[in-house]
Queue: 3 jobs
Job 1
Amino acid sequence: MRTHTKETQATLTPSDALKYLHEGNYRFVNNLKSNRNLLQQVNETRDGQFPFATILSCIDSRTSAELVFDQGLGDIFSIRIAGNIINEDILGSMEFACKIAGSKLIVVLGHSKCGAIKGACDNVQLGNLSTLLNKIQPSVYFEREIVEDRTSSNGEFVNNVAHIQVKRSVEAIIERSMILREMIAEKKIGVIGAFYDVETGTVEFMEDTFMFGEIKHVYLAVDGELTTGKETEETTAATAG
């Protein structure tokens, strides 16, 4: 596999980047790892890097984005934090990756059996960890499907909350970064949520979260179900007001 250059990066679209990640995960799941000379890539990237995608994922040791998407040195920016939450530092990193370094796609990658999600489900209180888990608590609240055993011992509940957390993080990117929001609206970059299964190695891309050229929002409907809707002039005005 060849290392990305400034020229190859410039010709890529968000759809191309998404295709590369799809293909990379397919290789990973089927044990078809690309043949790379990593030392050669070290040499080829010594004067600069031109990653085609930016992946926000959890710190979980089983979810290394470079591995699950079969990418090499200089291919992707990897941002990792427990529970794939969004804060100003994460947003700043994404803004650098896209606005300055030319990345074409942002992926928020959640995963099954996430320890941070389980901690939030159980309302764990532990030093600075509590502050982080508090940022996940709204996802626990928005999960309305499970009525009984809303704890980490219920795998279905944990899985539902983890999916909601991905959608909330995608939403937070467009709500809290005007730079990234404008780049999406201007079709310079795309953003999408995804979910990694630690049992199979498969990544599910959440197509309803994909944004490229139009801004969409995730709402909590009256009946408690999360729905995705396109932004309209009315919703823009309501948000601004």
Note: The first helix runs from residue 6 to 11.
Job 2
Amino acid sequence: MVFAPGTTTDIEWVAAEATVPSIRSRAAKLFLRRLRKDARCPIHRGSEGNAMLTKNTGRTAKALALTLALGLGASGAAYAKNPMVGGAPMYAQKTIVENAVNSKDHTTLVAAVKAAGLVDTLNGPGPFTVFAPTNAAFAKLPPGTVESLVQPQNKAALTKILTYHVVPGVYTAKDLMALAMKGGGQGQINTVEGEPLGITVQGKKVYVTDVKGNTATVTIPNVMQSNGVIHVVNAVLMP
């Protein structure tokens, strides 16, 4: 089993596979390897027809593989498989809480979720869309705010703030953009807390504005979860 002269080489196939981003790596690379395997067929000496067939098959398979790789590369940024957040991979088969606890950028958020008693809720079936502020976002709050909110006597206030970051259902960045465009550039989305969040779009960026007029930027969109989706934001939203 060899390649005919002029057909796709192993190095070219590896290069094609390497262009497939991690987003859909398993399915895409298995497909590429299947094409690679199918491009190989026996060549009988003296059989010009078989050699030509193998040569054409190899070239066609290479073209299909590269097309697939480029296509996935174009769409992959929006729906990355196991994207890195806070130095840890986020797994689509895990829940919001199961993933969040592994992000070094969300230790404050996780501590707040635990203090508010929302772990079971965010581990539940949902689905939920969560705008997840980073540690740096919480650090922008007035000194002592976080330390005060996680105290047992302030559980109700903390719960109100956290549930203001949670929306029932799954809204990807594409959905949020469509919502904003439908409203002429501005849209609204209702939170679990009860008050709305404003959604605006500039270029490819999604912005979320609270009822007090504070705006957060979605810095990492579409972190898919088994029970919803997380959008990392750079500010804490206040109801």
Note: The first strand starts at residue 84 and ends at 85.
Job 3
Amino acid sequence: MLLARVLFCLGFWGISPALLACDLALALAVDVSGSVDNKEYRIQMDGLAAGLRDPVVSEALVRGRAQVMVLQWSGSSRQEVSIPWTAIEGFEDVEALAKAIEMAPRPWRNFSTAVGEALQRAGGQFAKVLNCNRKIIDVSGDGMSNEGLSPRKAHPALKQNDIVVNAIAIEASEPDLTAYFFEHVIRGEGAFVITATTFQDYPEQIRRKLLREVARQTAALVVPRCRINGCEPGFP
């Protein structure tokens, strides 16, 4: 009944449901290079899952009908789509995604840090979610790029496809990493860097980062709200 009323209102306002299919496509790119030990890897993946379960984050993902994927990356030619694009249409989808992240195996352990190639590989995945209004790569890392394509050389293709890059700099061993990410990694309107001073600080900072990306900046879609006396614009 509720769905029928919503569809009626969409038609009343001349808005196609397909246009509201996806507000946000979010690619989560996780650093698994050799500088990340097994305990730190676990902190990253569990922290990311917990961040997605945050009530405000999960509600924003559902409300925006987000598409989310996870890419694990390390050195040159070592990027793996661990979890392909996942449609978030209900809270059960958020929980399933969080569990998949917690269970995802680590593909590599002892390789370099190729940030540019991670951006390039993640950027290429957005061809599968062209209907999404916003496109963001959320990259985490604990070191500067030291192999393969430089991050800046990946930027032109990302700009052409209107893809924003945000980052979380884990400064466990490189105290100037936040400045490096500001200068070389992030791009796009409103792009930002969040700093985690240690891996132990990562879970709280990734939650803050997701809140900023997903909850605070989810586009204000004009969705007709049905009432007894008719429909009017605005969120329910």
Note: The chain is about 40% helix and 20% strand.
